[in-house]
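Quick review question:
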C-alpha cells in the first residue's frame, strides 16, 4: 500500500507491505507518517490529542485491542495534558495501549535522554514505569504546576496519574536539582 489513508482520526501517509488475511489480524511493515493523527480518540484517552510523526513500522492489528507494532522513528509533536511536546525520538513496541522501549525528548521545555521502560496510555489514566536522565524540565510551561520551577536529575519512576493531585506510586530522583 502506497499513498494517503484518510480516516476520521486523521490522515496517514504510508509505503507499507500489508497482508489482509480473511478472518485474521492484518500485518504490515514499512514507512508511515502523519501530519496530524488523533491519538487520544484512538486510545480512548482524553489527555492525549494529535500526534505528528514519521518512521518505520512492523506489526499487526489496527485497533487498540489487537495492536502489536514496533516503531522506530520521530514524533514531531504530541499533545498530552494541554501541552504540545516536540522532537521525540522513539524506538519501541506498542502492544495494545502499552509502549515499551527507548525514547529521547528534545523539547524547548523538556529534555530527556535515554528513557527506557514503559508508558501505558489506557483510557484516562497514564502509567509510567521507566528510568531516564532528565536534563531539564520547566514544570510551569509543561503545565504540571502554576509556579516557575525547573527540575533535572536521574529518574526512576513507577506511578500512575495524569497530574500531581492523582499521583499513585513511587518516584525516585538522584543527583537532582530543583530551581525556583
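Suggested answer, residue by residue:
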Amino acid at each position: 500500500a502506497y499513498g494517503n489513508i484518510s480516516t476520521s482520526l486523521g490522515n496517514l501517509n504510508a509505503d507499507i507491505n500489508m497482508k489482509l488475511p480473511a478472518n485474521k489480524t492484518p500485518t504490515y511493515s514499512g514507512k508511515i507518517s502523519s501530519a496530524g493523527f488523533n491519538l487520544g480518540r484512538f486510545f480512548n484517552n482524553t489527555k492525549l490529542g494529535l500526534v505528528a510523526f514519521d518512521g518505520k513500522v512492523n506489526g499487526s492489528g489496527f485497533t487498540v485491542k489487537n495492536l502489536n507494532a514496533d516503531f522506530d522513528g520521530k514524533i514531531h509533536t504530541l499533545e498530552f495534558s494541554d501541552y504540545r511536546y516536540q522532537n521525540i525520538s522513539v524506538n519501541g513496541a506498542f502492544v495494545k495501549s502499552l509502549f515499551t522501549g527507548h525514547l529521547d525528548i528534545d523539547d524547548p521545555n523538556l529534555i530527556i535522554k535515554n528513557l527506557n521502560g514503559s508508558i501505558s496510555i489506557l483510557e484516562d489514566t497514564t502509567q509510567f514505569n521507566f528510568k531516564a536522565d532528565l536534563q531539564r524540565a520547566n514544570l510551569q510551561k509543561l503545565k504540571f504546576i502554576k509556579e516557575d520551577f525547573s527540575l533535572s536529575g536521574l529518574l526512576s519512576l513507577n506511578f500512575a496519574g495524569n497530574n500531581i493531585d492523582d499521583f499513585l506510586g513511587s518516584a525516585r530522583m538522584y543527583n537532582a536539582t530543583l530551581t525556583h
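Why it works: The longest strand covers residues 48-60. The mean pLDDT is 91.
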